[in-house]
User: What shape does this take?
Amino acid sequence: MSTAAPVICLDGPSGVGKGTICLAIAKRLGWHILDSGSLYRITALQVSRLFPGTNVISINVQQLADIANNLSICYRCENDELSVFLNDENITQLIRGEEIGAKASQVAAIPEVRKALLDRQRAFLQPPGLIADGRDMGTVVFPDAVLKIYLTATPEERANRRYKQLKDKGIGVNLAALVEELRLRDERDMNRQAAPLRPATDAIIIDTTTLDIEQVTNEVMYWVNQRISH
Ligand code: C5P
Assistant: This one.
């Protein structure tokens, strides 16, 4: 890991658009991306494959940490999309569903799992720089980041965005169920003991409820230009 490379943290709740903004900023800067949520989603997928039909809370935490520790993951950025491979299997679509998202939020509440994924996340920091997307990028993973942004939006607006995103990808969902699922996930992510979702004390908070992707990207770029010479 190079400590010389700068990090920008982009934290916030589910469905706020972090992934889209991250890709846009990374493209403008030519920097690397860490989609930390995907690591929890991949862990959840592997858990559901190894323990089919088993509730996460009834699985031994050390077994869960071992799964997180031993994931063989590879990312490829093609045509403005980040593709994820687990043991050479393209699982990009497989991990995007709401069921895996909910399971990811359950495994993410387990401190041993978070610890197992910490070094893997920090290893993404390579020159010329990293944009890290998640819940605890600014509070836990990269506390010395040069810029910390926390994106928010109302649950209804986030559910709407997620609905459109999933529909575009051909994944069928019910909007009311999505709002409820987001609320549950927010509650779990904000109230867990281990690295709860909250803005770092030195984060810049941007409410994106009434902003489009370009407006949010420009706002983030304003702060990037204030803090980083590139
Ligand atoms: O961002 P995404 O929706 O892919 O994340 C899935 C779940 O992973 C979140 O609901 C959250 O519980 C967990 N997560 C986390 N810490 C991160 C990123 C994601 O706990 N840094």
